Amino acid sequence: MKRIGFYLKNYKKESVLGPLFKLLEAFFDLMVPLVMASIIDTGIENDDMPYVVKLSLVLVALAVIGLICSVTAQYFSARAAVGFATRLRHDLFGHIQSLSYTEIDTIGTSTLITRMTSDINQVQNGVNMCLRLLLRSPFIVFGAMILAFTIDVKAALVFAVTIPVLVVIVYGIMLITMPMYKNVQTGLDRVLGRTRENLTGVRIIRAFNKEESETESFSGENLALNKSQRLAGRVSGLTNPLTYVVINLATVFLLYTSGVRIDAGGLTQGQLIAMVNYMTQILVELVKLANLIVTLTKAMACFGRIETVLDTRSSMEYVEDSLMQDRSCGAGGALGVDFKHVSLTYAGAGAKSLQDISFTAPKGSVVGVIGGTGSGKTSLVSLIPRFYDATEGSVSIDGIDVKAYPKAVLRDKIGIVPQKSLLFAGTIRDNLLWGNEAATDEELWEALQISQGEEFVQNKLGGLDAQIEQGGKNLSGGQKQRLAIARAMVKKPEILIMDDSASALDFATDAALRHAIQSMADAPTMFIVSQRASSIQFADLILVLEDGACVDMGTHEELLAKSDTYREIYESQFKKPEVDSHA
Q1: Residue 196 placed within a domain
Q2: If pLDDT is split at 50, 70 and 90, which confidence band does 332 have?
């Protein structure tokens, strides 16, 4: 509740005026039965038409004023609820951006999407309904009971019995349905996760003819969600019939006892009509309150799930810029990237993904990383920009542990080209400027020239201003990779990580790309992750990974001589030279 107040503090006026105008509307609604009683007992009883007309105009005035109050209340409530949700969504998105890959992997992408969309929408709806009805409905219920006692104490005793029974029914159903709606949202997470997996991997699913099995899996998740929603709906659906039964029984009892008293002269017809009207108002408001409680139950369950994400703290801590000490080492320009007995275990994993890896990459050198699928190549290079922290050992850049760098300083040193070339909807220029917002057109063309993408961009209609669809759908695989490489080169990084990012390039383009990067005046320290031996054979140092361990390292010639693993990879891609039997 304290956090809800925090997000509403900028809307104090709206949060007060919304319920206030609703209470005014409720007050005018409570006056209507009293006016009706006067019309019946005085105007109609005495055949006084001017009196009837006068009070009828009062009823019209009460209706108009009530309508104005209702519209005003809804305006302020909606304004507060939308502002609340906007600020909450902004903070949640910002907090997710601050989490490390470890937390994002643990929570799950589909769960985070649900929190950002469905959960916040439910909370927004709950805040809106709460501001409009949370005070109005109880005010009507207890106000009707009090006014009923002012009309006739004996007849009003039925209210004193009915209202506590209704409160028990509504509150009991609320307690039962709260955990049910939490299960519903959890099921929604699973369905969203399954949907996302299927849409992302639709080509793989079709390639392996797995449509039927995936449809069955989705149907299972969807059926489980359907069952939990139906169960919660059935229980919460009991609210209306139970409250109707209690109210109608109370109304029947009221009509019976009051009818006897009217015959005896102890109660007037107008007073009975007023009492029945108050009972009807209580019925309507309790139905609204029951629906409100269902909405609030969903909203509180969703807000609890949002709080879980907001309370999750990143496992990585970065030092402030002002706290970083200026360390200088005698090695000067020879410093680069240094791994010392590095091991990595992912959160929740039972075994190490990397184990006891040590090597040094001098500044300006080229390091090749090769190995089979799942050998830990991407995990290794992910430790340099601190996407993950080493669980054992240390990773240093220029003699300083990466954990001692401020986040912005560390990331500015590094350019990364990931395995999957992600491009965003917009122009080529927009995508390249992600590398350096202040880059000039000349620098953009220079980066494109290095990445071997200059020619195809020039041939595009609009050049740098050519439009790119979301994910680069209107580009080939090689074009996407070259633009991703150019984006990394725009920032002129000290360290360039190319994680299998030239797989769609032909051998000639790949060779030209590596030559262009190494020919730069201030060439970066380059890490090339690849399954192509041709891409790394000219590297200064090649690391051969197998099951998370560095089984061999050295130059291409050294590894061919001593490493069975490297030789096997190389010979699988290049024809083994034939031995002359006549030699």
Answers
A1: yes
A2: very low
